[in-house]
Amino acid sequence: MNTLHARLRGYGTFWQTMTPAVRGIILMCASTVAFSIMHGLVRFVSEVLPPFQIAFFRNLFGIAFLLPLLIRSRFSMLRTNRLGLHALRGVVNIAAMLMFFTALSISPIAKVTALSFAAPIFMAVLAVLVLGERFRIYRWLAILSGFVGMLIILRPGIIAIDLGAVLVTGSAVFWAVAMILIKILSRTESSLTIVAYMGIFLGGFSILPALWVWQPFGLQTLGWLVMIGLFGTLAQMALSQSLKETDPTALMPFDFLKLIWTALIGAWFFAEIPDIYTLIGAGLIFASGFFIALRERQSKVTVD
């Protein structure tokens, strides 16, 4: 036991000797692995359970993992004067999640992941329209480039646009709206309060859709649902901590690893090989989002 404690202390010391940027990158890479595994599990379990039911259990176990933190803070993190805005964020977020999980159940997971990279592009549009941020030509050029990437993946008029592609694109729009709401909430709310209400409202709002399509299942399926909740929570925790360690623009390039992991999972477990158009389009979308984030950071530094 003493040897184990000594090793753990050694690992902790080694972790602290790393620079914040290195720790952030490691955590970001870990989050992409956890997210990709969760997406693969959602695709696997969707063969026996409806996506709405899977989303409910994802949120249920998310609340279960959050409960110790709530108890430890004596529920102080739930103090807020913006309950309505938290609820609106929950409505938008659950719409994004249900659409995304449904897309995972009917479309290749690499394609779903590729199109999900469009969320920052939609967010940039909403930041101008909703938050009144300044019009910047580089932003619109990057947005245009991102939409070209989407067109390369979807190829409307050349191939039929499947329902999964429509759903994941809609999910990216809703997630962009959710990010705008998070940005507004962060002006007055702590990150812990925002996360706590996300878990509560997502869990509550996912009950009725799950009951609408409820299917009985056995212990083995329950085990897979627990794993979805576990990897989803680990992914969120690693992502949140990575953003605390270093600047998001330093981490964004590593988010593209999700496409690599999901492509490998899709090929190995579901015999899904992403075509060249998906890879090219995903690269263009991701590069556009990264360029917007990088220029926004440079503009902020200049203003400051």
Automatic annotation (TrEMBL):
Key words of the record: Membrane, Transmembrane, Transmembrane helix
InterPro entries: EamA_dom, EmrE-like
Claim: Ribonucleoprotein is one of the keywords in the record: no
Residue ranges annotated for the EamA domain, each copy included: 23-154, 163-292
Top-level taxonomic group: Bacteria
Membrane-protein topology: Multi-pass membrane protein
Primary location group: membrane
Membrane-crossing segments per the record: 21-42, 54-71, 83-106, 112-131, 138-158, 164-182, 194-215, 221-239, 251-270, 276-294
Cell compartment(s), UniProt: Membrane
GO CC field: membrane
The keyword Amino-acid biosynthesis is annotated on this UniProt entry: no
Family as reported in the entry's similarity comment: Belongs to the drug/metabolite transporter (DMT) superfamily. 10 TMS drug/metabolite exporter (DME) (TC 2.A.7.3) family.
Record's protein name: DMT family transporter
